[in-house]
Structure formats: structure tokens, C-alpha cells
Write a structure and sequence with these properties.
This protein has 330 residues and is mainly α. The chain has ten helices and no strands.
């Protein structure tokens, strides 16, 4: 039996209403971005300090740029002679990746579960006020605790599939580069043909992977299945409703492009105008920084709305038909 669906515009509208009516939910992805930035800053600072100390020890600054090649040769010899250091470095990378994956899964479980709860309590054509959840924090933390394990598995499956897709594009691209550097015409032509096929296939596969990820998240919060079961169920739902699913994805992509252009164009105009004044550089830096921050916030809010729209595309079986029930405050 084909699952009932809403139209793509209606689902996107409900997703936007869910976020606008519950702006506090935006704190979760903002916190995740802050955690990622802090981790990357710590790792980058450690790498810079380590490289700087090694370069200083080998007097690279005094010997000139030619000594940098000697530094990399020494580093390669050190790594080959010290497998323990390689294992330690890889273990550190693995720990960081698992930490970030865990935080991402926790946030994803919380926001998806909270959005599903909000959508289930708002009737069709409900006003914006009907989407306001009086205990959105409780809904987030409850969903995060209840669904963390399933979303952790789903996020890792998505990451593995995305890595394979990236390799599918990188390998022929590296073949083209290698062929060009070595003047190997045969390798360049074959790799170029492979890349020409891989790019459109990769674009379609990336879109399909993104849709399955969003639909599988909706399945996890609405049905008692594990991550693999959610992916299988997502494939079934998409196959039963290909038109509306594709329409919602395209609407979401167009909206994301509009959000990006809405912030990029003013920054470009500002850069052009401010370039004629002495204080132009400082004006551009300050205003561009503000625009960049706003772009991140709006982009995260739109991502939440898109997640909510895929949750709303297939109405909950216990959703109200006319008026939403009252939600008891915490």
C-alpha cells in the first residue's frame, strides 16, 4: 500500500513553520558548529605548533625554502621508522572522528525527533501558532536520548557511503592529474572519460543519498526499526512516491541556492563599493564577517526546515485532522 503523502510545497511550508515557531531548536546545530570549530582550531593549532617547532629545530628558516624538502624527507623517514607514531596519530584521528560523529548523531536525533513531535501535533492548514511547542527543550533531549544509538549508526552509514562516493570522483580526477604530470596520454584520456561519466553519476547519486538520509531519519523517529531497517524503509517510501520526493528535494535545493545568493550578492557589492575608500578593507572585513555569521545561522535554520519538511511529507498516522491537541507544558 502506498503511504499517504502531502504535496512538496505543503511539506516544505510545514517544515519552515516548525522552525519559525520554535527558534530555540536552532541552538542545537549552532552548538554543534561551535564544537566542530573548536576541535578544528585545537587540531590546527597543535599541528602548526608541532610543525613550527620541528622546522625551527632543523633551522629551516635560516637555510631557506630549499630546506623544506629536507624536512619532508626527514618526516617521511621518521614515519617509516616509527610505526608506533603512525598508529598513535591514526588513533587520535579516529577518536576525533568518533567524537564528532557522536555529537552529530545526538544533535540529529534530538532535532529530528522534536520536529516530528511538533508536526504530529499540528493539523492540516494549521496557523503558525499551532506549531509552537511549549516544551521544545524536553522534546529535543528526550529524542536525543531515546534515538541516539540508531542515529549514530545512520550517520556512520551516511558517512561511509559519502566517502565511497567521493572516492568515486577523486580516483579518476587523480588519474587525469597523474597522466598530465607524467605526459601519459593514454592515462589522461581514459581517466578523463571516466571522470566525465563519474561527475553526472556522482551528482545524481549524491542527491539520492541525501534524500535517503533525510527520509531514513524520518523513519527512525516514526517507526520501531534500526538504522538498516530505516534505510530499507526509506528506499520503499521513495520508490512509492518518487515524484513528490524529488520535487521536495528540488524545492529544498532551490531554496538553499536562494539563501546563499541572498548573502553572497550583498557581500560582493559591498566589496566593490568599499574598495574606493581608505577604510574599505576594514568595512569589508567587518560587514562580511557579520554577513557570514548571519549566513551560517540562516543556513542552519533552513537545514532544520528541510529536515522537518521530509518528516512532514509523510503525515503521522496519529496526526490530528482538524485541531491540534494541547501539549502539556513541562
Amino acid at each position: 500500500m502506498i503511504a499517504p503523502t502531502r504535496s512538496a510545497p505543503a511539506a516544505l511550508g510545514r517544515g519552515v513553520s516548525q522552525v519559525v515557531a520554535n527558534p530555540g531548536l536552532l541552538l542545537a546545530p549552532l552548538a554543534f558548529v561551535g564544537v566542530v570549530a573548536a576541535v578544528l582550531a585545537a587540531v590546527g593549532a597543535s599541528a602548526v605548533l608541532l610543525a613550527g617547532s620541528v622546522l625551527a629545530e632543523r633551522e629551516v628558516w635560516r637555510r631557506g625554502p630549499a630546506a623544506i624538502w629536507d624536512f619532508f624527507e626527514s618526516l617521511r623517514a621518521f614515519l617509516l621508522a616509527s610505526p608506533g607514531a603512525v598508529v598513535l596519530a591514526l588513533s587520535g584521528v579516529l577518536v576525533v572522528l568518533l567524537f564528532l560523529t557522536s555529537v552529530a548523531a545526538w544533535v540529529r536525533a534530538g532535532v529530528t525527533g522534536a520536529l516530528a513531535e511538533v508536526d504530529a501535533c499540528a493539523s492540516e492548514a494549521a496557523p503558525l501558532a499551532a506549531f509552537r511547542h511549549p516544551a521544545i527543550g524536553r522534546a529535543f533531549f528526550g529524542s536525543a536520548a531515546r534515538l541516539f544509538g540508531a542515529f549514530f549508526a545512520l550517520v556512520n552509514l551516511y558517512g561511509i557511503a559519502g566517502t565511497v562516493l567521493v572516492l568515486f570522483l577523486v580516483v579518476p580526477a587523480m588519474g587525469v592529474l597523474s597522466g598530465a604530470l607524467t605526459s601519459n596520454t593514454t592515462l589522461t584520456i581514459l581517466s578523463g572519460l571516466a571522470l566525465a561519466v563519474a561527475v553526472p553519476v556522482g551528482i545524481v547519486a549524491g542527491a539520492a543519498l541525501r534524500v535517503l538520509y533525510l527520509v531514513a531519519g524520518r523513519v527512525l523517529v516514526r517507526e520501531p526499526v534500526d538504522a538498516l531497517g530505516a534505510v530499507a524503509r526509506a528506499v520503499t517510501l521513495v520508490r512509492e512516491n518518487p515524484g513528490r520526493t524529488a520535487a521536495l528535494y528540488l524545492l529544498g535545493a532551490v531554496g538553499a541556492m536562494a539563501v546563499g545568493i541572498g548573502f553572497v550578492v550583498p557581500r560582493v557589492v559591498l566589496t566593490f563599493v568599499a574598495g574606493w575608500s581608505r577604510a574599505g578593507l576594514w568595512v569589508v572585513m567587518g560587514v562580511s564577517g557579520a554577513f557570514l555569521f548571519l549566513q551560517v545561522v540562516v543556513g542552519l535554520a533552513y537545514e532544520l526546515a528541510l529536515t522537518g519538511s521530509f518528516v512532514a511529507l509523510w503525515p503521522s498516522a496519529d496526526a490530528p485532522e482538524s485541531a491540534p491537541p494541547e501539549i502539556a507544558p513541562a
